[in-house]
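Hi U.,

Before I forget, here's the chain from the pilot set. I'm dumping it here mostly so it's searchable later in email.
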Amino acid sequence: MAEVQRGVVGDEEYAVGQALDNGSVITRIDIETYDDGSQRQHMEATHASGAVDRTTTFAPAPDHPLAVQTALVQKLHDALIDNVTVLGELGEDSHLAALTRQVNALIYLVLGQFDSTAGT
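Structure:
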């Protein structure tokens, strides 16, 4: 495990010494890289009172099944957005529009999004 000066949690980049919105300051970031390329990051932030918040995140290697699943889910979300454009450009009765609506329905099923049937 290596102590570093910068780290990433989700889409946010953090640095040792950075003040956070809750008034704490990042005091330590450790990153451990495993043989398969996955990483575990541990971050500590200290409040003025001396209390310490600890956050640990895990980033799988790019070819790890969890990383592949995450990438595929993002592609499905992107496809739904792209399909809105496609459906707007096609006539309602076209064969391609019907196929696009069917694909949207399958994407909703795979994503477990059962709150709407829009675009299906």
